[in-house]
Description:
The complex is a heterodimer of chains A (250) and B (281).
Chain A: E1 5-14, E2 17-27, E3 32-36, H1 43-51, E4 58-63, E5 66-67, H2 73-78, E6 81-84, H3 96-104, H4 112-116, H5 122-134, H6 150-162, E7 168-172, H7 180-195, E8 199-203, H8 207-213, E9 216-221, E10 224-229, H9 231-236, H10 238-249
Chain B: H1 3-28, H2 37-52, H3 57-79, H4 84-104, H5 123-147, H6 149-159, H7 161-166, H8 171-197, H9 207-220, H10 225-241, H11 243-247, H12 249-263, H13 267-280
Helix pairs in contact in B: 1-5, 1-8, 1-9, 1-10, 2-3, 2-4, 2-8, 3-8, 5-6, 5-8, 6-8, 9-10, 9-12, 9-13
The structure holds adenosine-5'-diphosphate (ADP) and magnesium ion (MG).
Amino acid sequence: MSALLEVEGLLLRFGGVIAADHLSFAVASGELLGLIGPNGAGKTTVLRLIAGLLRPEAGRVRLGGVDVTGQPTHRRVRRGLGLTHQLVRPFHSLTVVENVMIAAGHRHTRNPIAALARVSRIAERRAAEAILVRVGLADSAARRPAALPLGQRKRLELARALALEPTVLLLDEPMAGLSSAEAAALGDTILALNTTGTTIVLVEHNLGEVMRLARRLLVLDTGRAIADGPPDTVMRDPAVQLAYVGTAAG
Amino acid sequence: MSAYLVSLACVIGINMILALSLNIITGFCGQISLGHAAFYGIGAYAAALLAKAGAPLVVCLLAGTVVAGAIGTVVGLTALRVRHDFLAITTMGVGFIFLGVVRKQSWLGGELGIAAIPDAGFGPLGYAVFVLAIAAGVIALSLWLKRSWMGFAFDTVADDEDAARTVGIDVASYKLTAFGIGTAIAGLGGGLYIYFAHIILPDTFDFAVSIAILTTVVVGGSGSVWGVSAAAVLLTLLPEVSRVINDYRLLVFGAMLVLVMRFSPGGLAGAVAHVMRRRGA
Ligand SMILES: Nc1ncnc2c1ncn2[C@@H]1O[C@H](COP(=O)(O)OP(=O)(O)O)[C@@H](O)[C@H]1O
Ligand SMILES: [Mg+2]
């Protein structure tokens, strides 16, 4: 079976900093991959490269076997990619439920002219409300994103990505700023998604949750993959321990 | 009705069409334009040339709409490359290029413009009703657009382009669509103007007019169809009741633009909503 998501030789430098250093890995359909590494390792950069929000200097990105390296973000999204931003980016002019509705109606926004022909938002409102219930935001549906605490804005970010019904979901530190109970609840939601068939790449600093959820870990350091495998094996790897201790000390 | 009131009704209708057309680009899609009068002018010149050649009214109006919309879409391509303040400068430049070209082309009448444009044949009152009916049509289209999924997607483009892309929105084609529709409707306004004035001069479409259109949108409340329509009526009447305002139009409108943006960014619509909320509370 071929990989659902594949990156090959990704290279991106910011001035003197190498954020992705000839990075290659593949994610099989149905996997839940934990992507970890110290701060500045290049995790966000990799996700943004996969989503097309950054362009690599070299390397390729394949989604479902199709080379999407030259494609803009919205095309990749329409091929089944979903993404949450590490720094949340809700639409501030919309309410919470509308933020999710616009994603739930992704079929109606493919073409501007076709979008002009349609006004009903009833079905999308229902779908969005169901997703808000799932992430525990039902009570905030009518509020503005700016009025939400960070933990809730993080969940809105996830809700919006879910509404796209992605086959591959990239999550960039969805648990940052959540209490441990909230993080565990979100972890359960992520696990349930994976169980129902969504392939997930999870970037997360909450190692306890990552160990609980992921069956495979990929460790990045200075833009390179330094370890890849089952969580227990990876965490015992001396190179991984050095990378973490190195940042803790420095 | 007096001839004066009939002609005033015509001007109100045309100004409303112009303001609502810019409202689609700026209010709905969040793209500033300081050169909107150019598309008003392109529509007027295209319609006037055809009218002088004997083409019927419908053909002239359609031509003005299509030519302005086509050139507007091309200008919209530049909007894909630049953002915010650069877009303001670029569109302002488009306005000056339009004037520069029109002033120098003898087939467009140069400084003397195009005169002796034939009549629509409806009589002054009939034509005013016709213009107002089209303005009502543009209001209806705006309201529909705002409620549609196109309007919904415009909200996200105006708000955060990168976030819009991550929910699958093709930001570039939505921006081009906004420019195409907005400039086409401005061109329609230009076509309507020629049968009212029977003469067009380059100055009719100068920078002051672009600023007046933008001021109308901002004063009404960028994005609010009713607010912008109301502002078009008010700001058309203002220079009529005061000679001073008429003489210093660019200054007065520019000052209004700055003051509203500074003190009441929601414009008339925002102020009304604020009052309603306080009443309700
Ligand atoms: N837009 C940018 N401009 C300059 N440097 C950047 C930019 N984005 C990331 N970097 C640098 O690239 C490296 C990787 O960053 P990032 O991918 O955000 O790491 P992580 O998500 O693993 O913490 C860091 O050294 C960071 O400072
Ligand atoms: Mg990061």
